[in-house]
Every structure is written in C-alpha cells, then in structure tokens.
C-alpha cells in the first residue's frame, strides 16, 4: 500500500513547528464551511440513524454545529498548549464557558500510585519515527474519528492512516475538506473499509507502528490478536465504553430534585438509542433509601413521556432482546419496552445477596437496557460497587446528590470513584466537551475494559488519572435537555465555527444577519408558494429527502 510508505517516510520529518501551522490551516478548513454539505453527509447520517422527516432539520443543524465546534475547539486548545506563555492550569476548577454557566471541570493528578504509573506507561504508547498509526473509524458518532486522528497527529506527532468504518463510509467527504491541509502535506491519508481480510492485512503490515480504535471490547481483543502477528509489535490504544453507573446519593430529595434526577437519567439513557459509550446503564440505589420507590416510578413515567429515538446500531437489537428476556424470564423486568427502541428497566437485585444478577452490569449493553441495582451500606458501599469488577469498565460515571446530602461524604465519594470522568449533578456527556479546554477522555488508568490511554490532556498534565465535572448550580438545575433549536444551532455555527474571517466580529455579525434575512425571505416565499417546499433553507443544515 503506497499510502503507508509515504506516511512512514513523512513521519521522520514531522516537526512541532509545522504542526502548529497545520493546525491553523485546519481551523481555516473548518471556517470555510465547505465540509458542511460535502457529499450530503448529514443526510447519510440521518438515514443510518433513521431520523424521522420532521426531526431532520434539528438533527442536521445540531450535528453540524457539534462537529464543527468539537474539531475547532480541539485545534485551538492544541495551539494554545504549544505557546511558551501557556498558563492554563486545568488541575484547578476550570469553567466550561458561557454556554455552560456554573459548570466546571478539574483534572485530578496522583503520584506514586498504581493509577499514576499506568497513566505514565499509557502515555508512552505511540508510533516510532518511520512507522504509521492506523486510526480505525468509529461507527456511532461522526466526529469521534476526527478527534482520534487529531490527537495522534498533533499531540503525539504521528502520521495517520484512517480506515473508515463500514457504516460511515460517506464521512470521507467532509473529512477530506476538514483534513485537507494534513492530506496535502502527506500527514494523513484515508482508505475505505474493504472487509475484514483487507483490514487484517493493514494491521499486520510492518510499516504500522501503532493502532488506535474507539469501539467494542470484543473488537479490541481481535485487533490485539492480529497485532501480535505484526513484526513491528504495534501497541493498541483504545476507548471501549462502559456500563456507565449513576449513583443516587441516599438523602432527602425535594420533589423538584427527584423529578429532575429521573428526567436527566432517562434523557441520558435514550441518547442515540442507547448506542453511546457514555450512555447511562446502571442506576445505583441505596437499599434503605426511603424514596427509592418514588424515584423508580418517576423514571418509568419519564421513559414513557420523553421522545424515544430509534436504536439503529447494527447488532444491538439482539443484545437488547437477550438482556431483556434474561430478566423477564426471572420476573425481574421493572419496565418492559414494547419495541426494540423502548427502555427496559431490569432489576439486578441487592449487591452481595445470593440472588444478585450482574448480567446487565458486567456487560456493556449499548442499547436501551437500564439496570436497577440496590446496595446496602450507604454511599461508601455504593462507590465500592461502582469501582468493583461487577461494573464493566471505568470510562465515566455520575453521582447525583440533593442539597440535603452530607457535603463531606459526597466529596469523599467523588475522590474515590475510579473512572476517567466523574460527573457531579450533571451528565458525564459534558466530560467529552472538556477536550477543547484541556480536559481528557478515556478509561481510568490501569483498567482496560474501557480501553487504554486517553484523548485530550493537551497540556500534558503529568499523573492525570481522571477529571471531575461539576454542576455547581445544584441538582434542581441539572441539564435535562441536550438538544439545540435549529435556528440557534445555525446561528452558533455561523458565529463560532465559521466566524467573520478577516473582518472579525463585524464579519461574523454580517454573516449571521445575512443568513437570517435570507431565511426570512425564504419563509415568505414558501408561504406564498413562490418557491418549492423542498428548497434548502438558507444557512441551515437541512437534509434533503
């Protein structure tokens, strides 16, 4: 494969100074906005995820904004980290910005601990000069492969061959625009998926010095077996998901706190049909908590009241049916979904009891299965359960606590939780958004079921073992709606991702104003039948049927 030879040769002359300039060129590629419509990729994404026609405008606007801002903020953070005058200290509480008031994150470091030693060892896993890193494409979120690639290119200084995921082959079109400066400089190349034999041949090629993947644990083990046959002995870094737990601190919840906690849990469970590495999977409840029945009923109500997206990911329908039937046959289904898209709540029992059933906690579901686990012994014992092998992985978790909770106990719990991202009164989803600010995302060091290594940590914090994301506004104000109205997403996209070019703020305001004027004219024309109803809404990410 000529691409591997070219990339391997280029890796020997890939300097830090040229990286910064290429990062700036990639930002210009984002701001060009040409990637937004390249290959009609938003339509293909919506088709795969079976998004209904009446939801496609919102879906497309939001996905475009998230893709652009994720890539741009990551590149900007990398450039800042390379400045000799960089003074950012993410080991102190750091704001997520004006768009997330009251939300902070903080990188936690350790020295002379097993986790710190594992983190240092994982940091050394990289390709050597003269070899190439292969990044295997991700199937569930369109922007993840981009971030994985940028991490290897800029932070580790590697050249990268991207092998696209078979489900998302169309992403080659926006990627070719966004990564154009890297492709032109022979730092990145892409190939389409041509089946397992072709992928195995790439992984066994001695010019491959490292592999990174985001996906399933089973896939990672298969890759490791293949790499063992490569004479270059490439290492594998990975992000493999988790049976993500949420701890409900046993205390007195107000009605508002209880309802918000239940709604936030259900929203987090339903995201992307349950097919996210960070989707909630296990509710951890105190067995003697007085409000557990009330909370369960509120969760059931929200499961039936909130919108239910399609669980589209290939293969997960079988996982859903297997897990669901496993508990239904034992009479342990607390809520049974009527379709493969509906949330089914299963009762695992009391942890430590003779009939505790851990099938839904030791396996990542990646589908709409929600496990209910009760733990005796209060908050410390609940943390012990989450840190145990009874929970699959260590990628992320959340702890919810009402105002009445003992603050010292809550802080002690947050400190003891061994997960890469620990969220307090907020969804762990916010953990991934810290990458553009110097945060990190990955498994707790030394625990491999959620993978090896991290993305992010662009400031190179030594001994970083996890990050804590906090909602300082309290549980009653927990985020329960992660969607963005289409017009807001489109305005934010123009303002933050595209910007005003050389005209700065004036140019940004001009572009936003012109988009809104054109949209108003479009709507008038649609109303009086002067234009076709399928015409593209100006400035939007509308997806043609």
UniProtKB/TrEMBL annotation:
Record SUPFAM superfamilies: ALDH-like
Stretches assigned to the Aldehyde dehydrogenase domain: 120-440
UniProt-recorded name of the protein: Aldehyde dehydrogenase domain-containing protein
Entry-linked InterPro entries: Ald_DH/histidinol_DH, Ald_DH_C, Ald_DH_N, Aldehyde_DH_dom
Gene3D superfamilies per record: Aldehyde Dehydrogenase, Chain A, domain 1 (3.40.605.10), Aldehyde Dehydrogenase, Chain A, domain 2 (3.40.309.10)
Top-level lineage group: Eukaryota
Pfam families noted in UniProt: Aldedh
An example molecular function term from Gene Ontology annotations: oxidoreductase activity, acting on the aldehyde or oxo group of donors, NAD or NADP as acceptor
Organism (species): Triparma columacea
């Amino acid at each position: 494969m000529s691409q591997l030879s070219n990339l391997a040769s280029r890796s020997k002359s890939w300097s830090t100074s040229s990286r910064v300039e290429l990062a700036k060129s990639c930002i210009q590629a984002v701001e060009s906005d040409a990637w937004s419509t390249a290959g009609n990729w938003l339509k293909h994404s919506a088709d795969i995820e079976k998004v209904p026609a009446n939801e496609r405008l919102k879906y497309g606007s939001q996905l475009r904004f998230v893709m652009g801002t994720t890539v741009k903020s990551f590149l900007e953070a990398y450039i800042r980290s390379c400045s000799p005058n960089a003074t950012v200290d993410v080991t102190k509480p750091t704001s997520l910005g004006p768009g997330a008031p009251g939300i902070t994150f903080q990188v936690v470091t350790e020295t002379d601990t097993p986790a710190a030693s594992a983190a240092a060892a994982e940091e050394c896993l990289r390709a050597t000069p003269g070899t190439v890193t292969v990044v295997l494409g991700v199937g569930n979120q369109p922007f993840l492969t981009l971030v994985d690639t940028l991490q290897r290119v800029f932070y580790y200084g590697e050249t990268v061959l991207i092998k696209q995921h078979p489900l998302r082959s169309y992403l080659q079109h926006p990627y070719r625009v966004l990564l154009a400066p890297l492709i032109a400089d022979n730092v990145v190349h892409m190939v389409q998926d041509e089946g397992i034999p072709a992928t195995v041949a790439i992984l066994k090629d001695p010019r491959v010095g490292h592999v990174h993947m985001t996906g399933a644990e089973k896939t990672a083990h298969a890759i490791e077996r293949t790499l063992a046959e490569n004479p270059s002995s490439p290492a594998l870094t990975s992000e493999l998901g988790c049976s993500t737990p949420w701890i409900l601190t046993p205390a007195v919840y107000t009605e508002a706190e209880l309802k918000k906690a239940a709604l936030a849990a259900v929203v987090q469970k339903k995201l992307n049909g349950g097919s996210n590495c960070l989707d909630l999977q296990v509710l951890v409840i105190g067995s003697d908590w007085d409000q557990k029945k009330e909370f369960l009923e509120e969760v059931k109500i929200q499961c039936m009241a909130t919108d239910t997206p399609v669980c589209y990911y290939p293969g997960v329908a079988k996982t859903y049916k297997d897990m669901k039937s496993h508990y239904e046959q034992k009479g342990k289904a607390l809520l049974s979904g009527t379709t493969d898209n509906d949330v089914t709540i299963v009762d695992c029992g009391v942890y430590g009891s003779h009939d505790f059933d851990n099938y839904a906690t030791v396996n990542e579901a990646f589908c709409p299965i929600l496990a209910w686990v009760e733990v005796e012994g209060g908050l410390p014992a609940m943390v012990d359960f989450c840190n145990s092998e009874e929970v699959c992985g260590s990628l992320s978790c959340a702890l919810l606590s009402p105002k009445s909770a003992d603050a010292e106990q809550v802080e002690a719990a947050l400190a003891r939780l061994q997960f890469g991202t620990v969220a307090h009164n907020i969804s762990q989803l916010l953990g991934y958004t810290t990458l553009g600010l110097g945060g990190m995302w990955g498994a707790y060091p030394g625990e491999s079921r959620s993978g090896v290594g991290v993305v992010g940590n662009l400031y190179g914090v030594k001994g970083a073992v996890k990050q804590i994301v906090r909602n300082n506004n309290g549980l009653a104000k927990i985020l329960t709606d992660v969607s963005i109205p289409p017009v807001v997403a489109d305005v934010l996209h123009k303002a933050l991702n595209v910007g005003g070019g050389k005209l700065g703020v004036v140019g940004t305001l001009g572009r936003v104003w012109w988009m809104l004027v054109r949209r108003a004219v479009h709507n008038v024309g649609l109303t009086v039948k002067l234009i076709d109803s399928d015409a593209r809404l100006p400035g939007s990410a509308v997806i043609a049927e």
